[in-house]
Amino acid sequence: MYIKTLTIQGFKSYRDQTQIEPFSPKHNVVVGRNGSGKSNFFAAIRFVLSDAYTSMTREERQALLHEGVSVTTTLSAFVEIVFDNSDNRFPTGREEVILRRTIGLKKDEYSLDKKSASKADVMNLLESAGFSKSNPYYIVPQGRITALTNAKDHERLALLKEVAGTKVYEQRRTESLRIMAETDAKRTKINELLDYIESRLTELEEEKEELREFQEKDKERRCLEYALYQRELEEVGEALEEIEEERRGEVHGANVRRELYEGREKEIQRLEQKISQTKHALSTSTITRQDAQAELTDLIRARTELECIVADLQSAGTQESGRRAELESEIVAAEQQIAAKERDLAAVIPQWSDYRAREVAERRKMEQAKAQLNALFAKQGRVKRFRTKAERDNYLHQEIASLESYQKNRVSVFESTRNDLNSTRDGLSEVTRRIENIQGTVEDGKKRVRDLGEQLSELRDKQSDLSERRKELWREDSKLDGLLGHAADELKSAERNLASMMDKDTGSGLRAVDRIAERHNLEGVYGPLYRLLDIPDPTFNTAVELTAGNSLFHVVVDTDETASKVLDIMLKEKTGRVTFMPLNRLKPKAATLPPNQDALPLLEKIRFDATHQKAFQQVFGKTWVCRDLIVAAAYVKSHGVNTITLDGDKVDRKGALTGGYYDLRRSRIEAIKNVASWKAKYDTDKKRSEEVKSAITTTDQEITRITGKIQVLMIQQAQARESRENSLQDWNSLNRERERLEARLLALESEINELETELSGISARLQGYRDELSTPLTQTLTDEEARMMDSLGVEVEERRRQVLDLVKVRTELDGRKNLLEIELNEGLRRRHRELQAKLERLGEADSEDGGSKQSLESRLRELKSLGASINAATKRSHDADKEYEKLTSEWQELRSTLEKAQQQQSEDGRSVTKLQKNTERYLAKKQMLSTRKDECNRNIRDLGVLPEEAFEKYTNEKLDRLVKKLHTVNDGLKKFAHVNKKAFEQYNSFTKQRDQLLQRREDLDKSATSIEELVHVLDQRKDEAIERTFKQVASNLKKLIIQRRIDQDDEAMDEADDTQQSSIDNYTGVAIKVSFNLKVDEGLRIQQLSGGQKSLVALALGTCILFSGRTPLTAYIVFAIQNSLSDTAQFITTTFRPEMLVTADKFYGVLFNNQKVSTIRSIKREEAMEFVDQEAQPQ
Question: Mean pLDDT throughout 697-720?
Fold first, then answer.
């Protein structure tokens, strides 16, 4: 790993971006004049790789930025180093590693491989490559070698400790010792506190006894004082109760009557509205009742007709069920007979096949023997017929030719018959396969007809349910139409009532604003103020209405631009007049007052959207609701706000006082609520009506769809039946074809057997003729031929007899087989198919729809559904009757209640204003008694927590005796003036503190033990690190001596390997012995060397330190050296000595112009030598 290239921009004297040509992996030399920027070049490398530029302030970062004479200002700088990572020293998996650091006045950032990275990630990556903080000698700046040359022994020892990384251990050890010292101080303080607490607990034990006696006396005193104060409090309370009774009889009575009057006014309005609703509901109920009765009559008529149809179907169904049972029993009997016959046939067929095969074999053998016998007889005849062998042979040749011709003819017949047999077998297999396929088709058709029948039944049930649902929806729709009409009428009436409470122009203007906003889709028009508010508590209705006044009808808009648009349209159309409240122009100032139970901000009692906050703050923000007029006047005077009472009496902050009688029947808030209520009801009923109408349309569509499905299924069912009938006809014809082919197959097999026997005989005859041609003509048969003739005659007779026996048995079995097959095919199976067809036709008749063929189950389901509908209609009729009676009774009661309320209202109206006297006298007396009551309560509170006996002990005691006892107790308490009244509390507090301190001391002891163990471990690790580093440095330097205190003056010390047995704390310094000629001297101390030798030794020591740990093989040494010390390390040096240039690989020159800008470029060795020579010449 080594540095390939370096890029600098804006860093110190390098203003412009400077990219240096690739470095050599070995020795690189940088030359330049003093002050040209060589040090800045190496500072740029340290800026990226070392920790010398961490935690910088703004001023320190500013110092790193370029400052020249140019006009432009450098705001940021960066240094980028590209490493060759071919040895994968950086664990990134790439051949190159690009590391950049960017700095500015307010930033300090790193990037790794062109991607942003954190400082911790970069430091970890450098640590992994060996750039460790514990070994700072991978970068050697100016002066470090000189310092190392002149270093003393103890300074070298400190350097080794620094390289070994002992700073971390020492810092942690120092921190641990500091914590342990703090812990010891805390333990000492805890011990002092425990001693103090123990002494205080001893003192408090003595004071507790005196305190108990004092508490007994003091409890008696407080009981007596409580009894006196309580008695005075009861007297004041009785006096207050008396004047309160007077108040109730005088002033409060008027308020009660007024509240009753107002409540009765509201009740009258409610009754009138309720009567109107009841009247409408009564008319609706009358219509519903008539409809329910008419529907019930129609349903009962339909049920009667359906019951007659069901009775007829049940009568027919009884006969059909008997016929079905009879057919099913016959089918079962036929199936049993078929099974028995099939078992008999299965037993006969193997026997028949066996005897038939034996018969054919015996017949063939008989024909062969017979042919041989006939040949012998013919030969015997020819002996007498022909005189010469030539005549005989001529005859035999003619016979052979004739037989061969005949044989050829019979073979062709045999082949033709066998082909017919094969084609017949193939035809039989095809017919059998078609029969099986058609049988499967017939079963599928049967299942298809049954499935379609079930689907038809389900669809008809669903159609019936939907029809009932549609009737329910029709009834609900009719009811909703009536409710919707009533709600529309009431809404128009409520709107007219509200319009009557405003002037005509305002009403028409508000309606015009609604039309314009809807027509032009103006979202910024929120509507009049009364639509935007809601008053949860109706108690504040009057206060809200009187506070707002005509502002209730002001139109709230989002901006003045929206208001201008609406106003322009209104002016063109000349439609009314309104006042707009643009929210962007409203700037209300809310009055902030502390909350009080006598006054509340009116705005808190109104609910509204936060979007309209400014409008409501403008109208209601400066008004407070007060309990009464006196409190309202006081608030106006003290806080300068508008106030209003719940009754509507207003006190303006400018001094105006308004109020008096307020007619609730002309309440705008109530009219607004009435409009909103009927509007909501109208919208709800309209929405529900639309939903019902939509449901009716959907139900109609569903019924139409189901009806279409039923028609389609009926067509499919008819087609399935027709297809099944066609398949049955094909199946019957194929069965007949199979029987014909089976009979033909048997005939062909018999014919083939006969042909095979005949051909066998012909072959035997031909063989005999050929054999005879090879024999001479004799007069008689040979003895062997005579014996063969006799044996063949016997064999022919025997085989003929056996053939006759086999034919007899086979004929008998053939008859049995044919009889069984005829019974099965022509009788039982045909009968079974006929019974199945009858049963299926009977089932199909049940599944058909319409007319007299309607299934009984369908009619019964329809009857059941009709019964349920009748029950529901009956219930609706009864409910309608009950509702009609209930509404009639309720309407009469409401009329009676309304008349009584109106009469009572007339009586109360004449006496509401008569009772308003003695209010000031009552208030003055009440104030005095309240002051005495507060004083007594304050005295009781000052007594503190009282014992339980204080509330009952002196309840019945006389007043004078109470006073005497209180005087006696006070005299007894004088001798306890010095007692500590908090001894109990202090004792408990000190006990709790003692327990807490003991627990804390135990925790601190455990912490101290842990810290001591940590210090011991840190010391051990530090010693190991120093020993390890010393061994590594000593192994490279060959002769390194560490001085101990015990032999500080001894020159002869053991080598570094022996130092492991000594303690690190006994080391006082590091000495070096040097030998430049091992043959002459054994070594010299560094103090005995010349200046050049010292520099060389210091250089060697630095290099050993460089290679002592896990450090990278790249070193940047900034001092004069004679030659390269390593073949594998990269050196980047600066020098004024020509010796350095001899061994270098690449050369770079640093230039500095008049604008104080440094640049660096690659130069040749001759240019570098020329520059060094110039610098070496005396100025």
Answer: 87
The residue with tokens 């664990």 is 91
The β-bridge relationship of strands 623-626 and 642-645 is parallel
984 alpha carbon, distance to own chain's centre: 60
Structure tokens at 1078: 């091992």
φ, ψ for residue 8, nearest 5 deg: -130, 140
Cα gap 360→366, rounded to integer Å? 10
What three-state secondary structure class fits 1160? strand
Inform me whether the pLDDT recorded for 82 exceeds 80: yes
**pLDDT tens per residue across span 1099-1120:** 676 666 655 544 443 333 333 3
Sequence-distant (≥ 6) Cβ neighbours of residue 611 within 8 angstroms: 526, 583
| Higher per-residue confidence, 382 vs 1154 | 1154
Task: Give me the helices (H) in 1038-1084, please.
Answer: none
- In the prediction, which pLDDT does 100 show? 93
Q: Are 1035 and 1023 in contact (CB under 8 A)?
A: no
DSSP per residue, 730-776:
HHHHHHHHHHHHHHHHHHHHHHHHHHHHHHHHHHHHHHHHHHHHTS-
Taking the C-alpha atoms of residue 1160 and residue 1147, their distance in angstroms, rounded to an integer, is: 10
Kindly report, residue by residue over 89-143, the tens digit of the pLDDT.
888 888 899 999 999 888 889 999 888 988 888 887 887 776 666 555 566 665 6
| CA–CA gap between residue 930 and residue 896 (Å, rounded) | 48
Radius of gyration of the chain (CA): 65
Residue range 884-912, pLDDT digits in tens:
778 788 778 888 887 887 777 777 766 65
Q: What is the pTM for the complete model shown? A: 0.39
pLDDT digits (tens, 9 = 90+) for 399-419: 888 888 888 888 888 888 888
| C-alpha triplet 460, 464, 467: angle, nearest 5° | 135
| Residue (of 766, 831, 731, 802) closest to 330 by Cα position | 831
Contacts of 882 (CB under 8 A, 6+ apart): none
- 100 or 168, higher pLDDT: 100
Q: In what order do the strands lie in the sheet with 1146-1152?
A: 139-140, 1114-1117, 1130-1134, 27-32, 1146-1152, 1158-1163
Contact 334, 831 (CB under 8 A): yes
Dist CA 471 CA 970 (whole Å): 95
Q: How far apart are CA 773 and CA 488, in angstroms?
A: 133
Predicted pLDDT at 1104? 67
Dist. CA 1125–CA 420, nearest whole Å? 113
Closest to 657 measured CA to CA, from 685, 679, 678, 637? 637
Residues 6+ apart with CB under 8 A from 399: 769
- Residue 1090: per-residue pLDDT: 61
User: Parallel, antiparallel, or unpaired for β 1130-1134 and 139-140?
Assistant: unpaired
Smallest CA-to-CA distance from 158 within 170, 145, 140 is with 170
Instruction: Give 452-466 pLDDT, tens digit per residue.
Output: 877 887 887 788 788
Q: 3-state SS of the chain: helix, strand, coil percent to 5?
A: 70, 10, 20
- Among 677, 516, 247, 1098, CA closest to 508: 516
Q: 513 pLDDT exceeds 50?
A: yes
Taking the chain, what is the end-to-end CA distance rounded to the nearest angstrom?
42
DSSP 8-state code for residue 852: G
Q: What is the 3-state secondary structure of 975-1043?
A: HHCCCCCCHHHHHHHHHHHHHHHHHHHHHHHHHHHHHHHHHHHHHHHHHHHHHHHHHHHHHHHCCEEEE
Count the helices and strands in the chain (H runs, E runs): 23, 23
In whole angstroms, what is the distance from residue 730 CA to residue 748 CA?
Answer: 26
- Phi and psi (nearest 5°) for 1177? -70, 145
| CA-based nearest residue to 970, from 228, 231, 224 | 224
CA dihedral (152, 155, 160, 162) in degrees, to 10, reads -160
pLDDT score recorded for residue 79: 92
Extract the tokens encoding 1067: 């080391």
